[in-house]
Amino acid sequence: MASKLKMIRKTLGCSDAEVETMVQKNPMVLMTPSEKLQRVYEFLTKVVGVDAKYIQGRPTILMYSLERRLAPRNYVMKVLQEKGLIRKDLSFYSIVTVGEKTFCSRYIDPYKDVLPGLGNAYASACKGRIPT
């Protein structure tokens, strides 16, 4: 347990109190493999552009699959933002935490006419093939 807490502190660059708060919000963070935490953290900070405090306040985001949820939904969010179809300040967390049906009904289906390939691109991304 102590080594896991130390690893979380080191990976996320947070204090003991911040780790304690994260664990209180989502105890499952302790069960997540260190490698996964590191990969998800790097993706969130380097690709999505959120900071450590954002992640610390929403530790559940570390539980989601990088390949099947985080990366595909980030792809959709970026495409929609680039086209001016959704707000630039939309919370990544709000996009990630909704269920699959809700996500598709909010972010894929309404744009079928404007971006006809978005649904297929999202499905491919969920299978590990991020479109370029």
From TrEMBL:
Transcription listed as a keyword: yes
Record's keyword annotation contains RNA-binding: no
GO-annotated biological processes: DNA-templated transcription termination
Domain of life from the UniProt record: Eukaryota
SMART domains per the UniProt record, alphabetical: Mterf
UniProt keywords, alphabetically: Transcription, Transcription regulation, Transcription termination, Transit peptide
Molecular function GO terms recorded: nucleic acid binding
Protein family per UniProt: Belongs to the mTERF family.
Name of the protein this chain belongs to: Uncharacterized protein
Organism: Panicum virgatum
Record lineage: Eukaryota, Viridiplantae, Streptophyta, Embryophyta, Tracheophyta
